[in-house]
Amino acid sequence: IAAVNADVDADTDADAPSPLQGKICNALMEIASGRAYSDFSQEHSFQANYWRDPRPEEKENFQAYSQLAKIGNEGLDQDPKLNENYAKTNKFVWVLATEDSLVWPPEGEWWGAPDPEDPFES
Predict the structure, then answer these.
(1) pLDDT recorded at residue 27
(2) How confident is the model at residue 88 (pLDDT cuts 50, 70, 90)?
(3) Rounded mean pLDDT, 46-67
(4) For residue 52, is it left (φ>0), alpha (ψ between -120 and 50) or beta?
(5) Which of 3, 27, 7 is nearest to 17 (CA)?
(6) How many CB atoms lie within 10 A of CB 32?
(7) In which element (H, E) is residue 47 found?
């Protein structure tokens, strides 16, 4: 996280994408989702492990292939003990990389997610 915050060129005043950027993002998301949610990508690309397509129709692929889903106990094989252990936690420390210009919306670093019906607020 410190390395992300160390980016001196980060655009801290970044707004939501424009409608054109939203359409471009949607097209790229189609390409990325089709490739990220595969055994090959998950085994060979750590970036694919952290891909989360916000659209409901991709939830099953996310659950089946994503390491992120497994870590967050959202995968197809869920471990009830993991939820029990999380529930025992007395305090959480959430870190938001405020200078990050790579993750949009930045709340995604807090396990947040955009509205799945309109992920780019077009």
Answers:
(1) 82
(2) very high
(3) 82
(4) beta
(5) 27
(6) 16
(7) helix 46-49
User: Which residues, in sequence order, are CB contacts of 16 under 8 Å at separation 6+?
Assistant: 104, 105, 120, 121
Q: Which amino acid is at 46?
A: F
Angstrom distance (rounded) from CA 93 to CA 109: 13
- Rg of the chain over Cα atoms, rounded to whole angstroms, equals 16
Cα–Cα separations (whole angstroms), residue 27 to 22, 33, 35, 86, 110: 9, 10, 13, 36, 25
Locate 10 and state its tokens.
Answer: 């980060």
Q: Which amino acid is at 58?
A: E
Q: Give CA separation, 60 vs 12, 44, 104, 121, in Å.
A: 34, 21, 23, 23
> In Å, how far from its chain's centre is CA 70?
13
Decide if pLDDT at 94 tops 60: yes
- Measured in residues, the chain has a length of 122
